[in-house]
Amino acid sequence: MAKVVVGFNKGFKKINGTRKRYRLFKGSAGSGKSVNIAQDFILKLMDPKNKGANLLVVRKIDASNKDSTFAELTAAVERVCGTKWQSYWKVKQSPLELECLITGNKVIFRGMKDVNEREKVKSINFSRGKLTWIWIEEATELQESDVDILDDRLRGLLPNRNLYYQMTFSFNPVSANHWIKRKYFDIEHQDIYTYSSTYLKNRFIDEAYHRRMMLRKEQDPEGYKIYGLGEWGELGGVILSNYSVHDFDIAFERFDSMHHAQDFGFNHANALLTVSFKDGELFVCNEIYVHQMDTNEIIESADKKQIVKSLPMYCDSAEPDRIKMWRDAGYNAIPVHKNQGSVKAQIDILKGLKIHIHPSCVNTIKEIQQWKWKKDPKSGLYRDEPVEVFDDAMAALRYSIEPLRINQEYSNIMLPTIGGWKMKGVNE
């Protein structure tokens, strides 16, 4: 094989070389961390000194690996090996898998969405070598218990003195109260190596991206700190804190009511949530969260997910044509009534509810962690107006309580029920 020449950003050199058990790549969007990690693993897996090493790549939702981590690793294979990459790597699409033909080392992909997927991770074995390395992409999507399960998999004697156990985390630091910060960044430990990167130090980024980030800096200074500078999200100004993320049964029968809510989008996300009520508490059960898909494609995706068509679907009233398309497809799409003060009214209702979010709703979780009030640049005080960036799932969440908002004057005596809403003492 010819001498490999692969481009790296200099800032990643030390963390790429560390053998500490935990290495954490915290960074802004466009900082190059995922590209760097993919190239680093491909080179290490091809090194004969690392024979017997195997890599497990994890995201909360297994299906999201295909267009993210798997795509990054296969692109890295082509950069490293050139046009003759098939002489050095075997790539499988179903299930996703890479195997180095030089060393026999493998890469496999998994999710941690539910109990079944977590149990499958516990039983992973390789015909040659051991599981030595784990890469967790979008690590803030995972719960601490998910990572503990993965951490327990890295144990036992290794077949090669050169090998070592290591977990690699890559993520945007969406919230300063995230467990990752507490567990790995707020302490000093000999087994932990952390590194922060930004798009400003990525020598491969284009000028158009720089202009885009400058625009975001002007429009959303708080969001720019996270997605531009890779800083932990501030605790101040967060709109909702009355939520918890945990597993729960999303079966229709266990709830008092269930319906859908949708915020339309194309370049920004199109968010479709399925929500339920039980004993006056709100449960976010499912999400479809996509970019650059037209309405017919999203409807097709909803059909495949077997979204119940007869349930009410509260939608952004600004796009009646899209609502008609959903109705023509058999869905019970209903426009949300917008008027002055409706956004604030929706938020007030949400703040008064206990909100439960299923761990599979990763984009809803990301958004709710950083959904904030706008800050007055002069006074430094927060205004009763949410930042309108990265809030598509939050818009759908607002629409989801439309029945409560419409009947706000009765909200203290209303109960959710399957197929609609009833008043206490009237229809019981």
Give an account of the 3D structure.
With 428 residues, this protein is α/β, with parallel strands linked by helices. It contains 14 helices and 19 strands. It folds into two domains: 10-227, P-loop containing nucleotide triphosphate hydrolases (Rossmann fold); 243-423, Nucleotidyltransferase, domain 5 (2-Layer Sandwich).
Supply the key terms.
14 helices, alpha/beta, globular, Nucleotidyltransferase, domain 5, 428 residues, 7-stranded mixed β-sheet
Give the strand content. 15-25%
Overall CATH architecture of the largest domain: 3-Layer(aba) Sandwich
In helices, the fraction of residues equals 25-40%
Shape: globular
The name CATH uses for the topology of the largest domain is Rossmann fold
The CATH homologous superfamily of the largest domain corresponds to P-loop containing nucleotide triphosphate hydrolases
Q: Please give the CATH class of the largest domain.
A: Alpha Beta
Q: List the strand order in the largest sheet.
A: 3-4-5-2-6-7-1-8
Number of strands: 19
Query: What count of structural domains?
Result: 2
Report Rg: 23 Å
- First-last Cα distance: 76 Å
The DSSP helix count reads 14
Low-confidence parts, pLDDT < 50 over ≥5 residues?
Answer: 409-428
- Which secondary-structure class do the elements indicate? alpha/beta
The biggest beta sheet is recorded as: 8 strands, mixed
| Mean pLDDT reading | 88
